[in-house]
Amino acid sequence: MSGGRERESARGKLRDWRRIVRKQEASGVSVSAFFQVQGLANSTSYFWRRQRRWRAAGRSDSVSSRNTRTAP
Question: Most buried among 5, 20, 53, 64, using CB within 10 Å?
């Protein structure tokens, strides 16, 4: 797959997950209950929520941001 297609695919996936996370937040139902009904793994939900927060904070590469955490 070319780099352009991969980026486009990642953007589409992020857009889809944003929609799902917003839907869960608006539902008032717990993450666990919502994702169980949807047939999705809770861990996936938490991953995408973290991605969303990192992107909102202006971090372009959330995975490397997580790996470069400094010790207290």
Answer: 20
What is the amino acid identity at position 9?
Answer: S
Residues 72 and 61: their CA atoms lie apart, in Å, by 22
CB neighbour class for 24 (10 Å; exposed up to 12, middle 13-18, buried from 19): buried
- How many independent structural domains does the chain possess? 1
> Which pTM was predicted?
0.56
Domain ranges, residue 7: 3-57
Note the pLDDT tens digit of each residue in 4-30. 777 778 788 878 888 888 898 899 999
Please list, in sequence order, all residues whose beta carbon lies within 8 angstroms of the beta carbon of residue 34, skipping any fewer than 6 positions away: 23, 24, 27
